[in-house]
C-alpha cells in the first residue's frame, strides 16, 4: 500500500473460513476486549490505526481488513486481496477443513492477487478448546516454517491473548519497515534498527481516517 503524508501505510488482511473466529480476533485487536457477539455483515470491515516507531520519520499506518462474512458466499473480490502487505490466515484448531483450506484456498488467494511478497501470519484460533483439538500444533508450526510464515495459537475469547496477536503484527510491521528502509537507503547500522512501536491510536482518529477514505473503500 502506498504511503501518504509521510506515513508508511500497510494493508493487513484477516482471512479464513467461516466461523474460525476472524472477526473475534479482529475485534480483540481493535478494542483490547473480547467480542461478546461479533457482528456479521456483507461488507468488508475496514479499521485504521497509527503506529509510530522510535526511529525518526517512521510512522506506520495500519489498515485492517476483515472479510465481513463475504467468504460465506465466496463474494470476496480481487480488490479485497490486492496490495496486501500482511495477511493473517486464520483457522480453528477444532476444524480440520479450516486448516486444509488455508493451503488450498486462502494462501493461494493472497498470492494470486499480489505481485509483491506478502508477510503471512498463520493463526490457530480457539486453543481454549484443547479437548476438541483436531489440528496438532506441531503440524501447524511445521507448515508455517515451510512457507516462511509467523505462527501463533491463541483464543479470541481470552483478553490476555490480545498480546499474542499484537506482538506478531508488530513483528511483521517492523520487518517490513526495515526491508523498505534498506531498499531505499541501503543497509542500516544495527543500533539504528531497534524499532519500538507505540500503542495503536483508536476511536476518534479511526473515525476521521475512515471518513477521509470513504470514497475509496478498497484502496
TrEMBL record:
Keywords assigned by UniProt?
GTP-binding, Nucleotide-binding
Q: Which domain of life is it from?
A: Eukaryota
Q: Which Pfam families match?
A: Ras
Q: Which GO terms describe its molecular function?
A: GTP binding; GTPase activity
- Which InterPro entries does this entry report, sorted A to Z? P-loop_NTPase, Rab, Small_GTP-bd, Small_GTPase
Matches recorded under NCBIfam families: small_GTP
Q: What is the official name of this protein in its record?
A: Uncharacterized protein
Where does this protein come from, organism-wise? Amphimedon queenslandica (Sponge)
